Amino acid sequence: MMKLWFAPNTCARVTLTALEEIGEPYDTALIAFMAGEHRKPEFLAVNPSGKVPALETSYGTLVQNGAILEYLAETHPDARLLPAAGDAFERAAIRAELYRCSADLHPIVTRFVIPQMMTANADGAPHIREQARAMMEFQLAPVAARLAASEWYFGTEWSVLDAYIAWIWFRLTGSGFDADSFPSIRDHYARAMARPSAQAALTREAEAEKELDARGLLFRPPFAKGDRK
Ligand SMILES: N[C@@H](CCC(=O)N[C@@H](CS)C(=O)NCC(=O)O)C(=O)O
């Protein structure tokens, strides 16, 4: 059985959603960031970068959300996690959209949500956050245009890109990014989160949050509004 190392509210939500779409049983292992578990030897042996998600499979462990999602899509074609690609170019073009989320958008999310982690100078954090907001607005414009033109990121069929964009939107708006600034992404978020797989992922996260809370280890981003949806 595959095992996902994860933490609630992180980008591992996208992987959780993909596993729920597949519908096969899987195991989870919770990382408590507030206890520094992501820097402890047990987890560094799983992912030396100390980041979630990490997926243990019968062939070995995979890290990097994009790679994990591609692997799950390829090994579970019936789940239609990514559009079918006719040739190498199409495959690369789909992968580029995954990388847009993991390599372009995600790092900006981190700077917006926890800017204080990017500077030793506490006075610098608001500036980093404002820069991140402007960068994010620029990067989200083409995403918003796509979602204004079609129901899902790749057209008429849902894919894990929709879960990825929904997580990015959740993280941003949960941290004070104006939810009305991109109506097409706001509306897409509602559609994406209505899927049973997304709801099942939230249920897993809620259980994990309960466990962390009981240990006094629940992390809330400093600018959080309190509404986890
Ligand atoms: N490039 C990695 C980024 C993963 C990542 O940054 N995960 C965050 C949670 S959303 C994390 O584990 N952060 C802990 C850390 O960087 O120490 C991926 O796409 O999987």
Automatic annotation (TrEMBL):
Keywords: Transferase. Pfam families: GST_N (PF02798). Residues 87-223 form the GST C-terminal domain. Residues 1-80 form the GST N-terminal domain. Coiled coil: none annotated. PROSITE patterns: GST_CTER, GST_NTER. The keyword Methyltransferase does not apply. InterPro entries: Glutathione-S-Trfase_C-like (IPR010987), Glutathione-S-Trfase_C_sf (IPR036282), Glutathione_S-Trfase (IPR040079), Glutathione_S-Trfase_N (IPR004045), Thioredoxin-like_sf (IPR036249). GO terms for molecular function: transferase activity. The keyword Transmembrane does not apply. This is Glutathione S-transferase family protein.
